[in-house]
Amino acid sequence: MGSLYSEYLSPSKVLEHYNYTKETLDTQETTSRWVALAIIVLICFTIVVENLMVLIAVARNSKFHSAMYLFLGNLAASDLLTGVAFVANTLLSGPVTLGLTPLEWFAREGSAFITLSASVFSLLAIAIERHVAIAKVKLYGSDKSCRMLLLIVASWLISLVLGGLPILGWNCLGHLEACSTVLPLYTKHYVLCVVTIFSVILLAIVALYVRIYCVVRSSHVDVTGPQTLALLKTVTIVLGVFIVCWLPAFSILLLDYACPVRSCPVLYKAHYFFAFATLNSLLNPVIYTWRSRDLRREVLRPLQCCRRAAGVQGRRGGTPGHRLLPLRSSSSLERGTHMPTSPTFLEGNTMV
Fold first, then answer.
1. Which intervals hold domain G-protein coupled receptors family 1 profile (predicted)?
2. 0.70 cut: is pTM over it?
3. Nearest to 128, CA basis, from 58, 233, 211, 245
4. How far apart are CA 258 and CA 146, in angstroms?
């Protein structure tokens, strides 16, 4: 065990593993690489900014301190960290990779893995919360805060454990034949374990939303027409984007497990699949919050204030910055889940 951890600081181990799993090494700085780097950094900057705006909106307005919006805030936090981690991962990739020690490599990959995992687990936590609130037909009681805290803490703890397993010893240092091609210091069995976990999460989210849809559909409340269509559209967008963004990454990791070393050239392009999966963090705020007119208004309020200040130069009057707009259940998402005779959908003063 001591010899294993002593290899974590070896400057030649990463090069050894990449030489074993890769046919050619990315050791040159090309124009195409710089263009791709600029695009990825721009995307990640957008992820950080839009999720930061959502977090500020949720934290600033007490009307958004209900269970559902707090879960959305947790999702925004994990997506924000995903953008930061992926920028760091990108800047330390390519020729820089070969100069890393195993410890630095594990930190690079582990941070990205933890944050991406946290985003996925946050989606699962939201689905669980919606299922408890709607399918179980259960009013929020005194245990609401405890349940929210448990779900949020559990999502981050599981993500930390999942992303930290390789640095704790589940890696292929000293066992080159067990190494993954996509992630040359990770074992193929670890890769398979991760894919299995995310596949189970995907199935769980699908099952929970199908259950929610069935409960709404079979209820005795009149939710036909535009209301039902709004709910179906929201659920379809959520599930569709999740599947579209993550399925290619799952597929490439499954192929990595099945392929012998150097036998599947497509594995050398795996970074494109992971970059595509990161788009889920870019789209989550759009799906979960942009369909809420009230939250959208609160998110855009700082921009409107700046525009008003620029147009009124020198004038100090107008609407005070601390005055909050009244919230109304007016978005398509809220209309889609509005049941006049059921208090199950009420969280604070806002419909979700």
1. 50-288
2. yes
3. 211
4. 42
